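My convention is simple: the sequence line spells out the residues, with the fold written below as integer tokens. I include a record here:
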Amino acid sequence: MGRQTDEHRFAVLFRDDNPHAKERVGVYEEALAFTVLIDELVEKSEARFHLKDLLDKSATAVAMRIAQAGAELNKLDRRRQYRVARRAATDCAAVLDILARRATGSPALLGAAKRAIISLVAQLATLAAR
């Protein structure tokens, strides 16, 4: 069993006995940055509460599931957590599309959030397949 690393500034420790450990830390960092972006978007948006709440919860779930995957010893359990994180990320993408269609948020913030979530979905799909 590999030792855990605390080389990054997160409370979550990712196992370093896997060649993809640094990639996992990177996707986790991107998910945390995404939650900050979503928080700003939610605060400035005039969208209905339920959409903002769903977006916030889904963005939080992405980061949480990535963290949970990092703690899994079993490869299948780790993949399952990444799949759940990817589903939460696609929920975020759908809400962002709805907000863009309804023009209820800053176009600049929506664009940045959409670019970030597309990147996260792609990375999570890769991690879920390993």
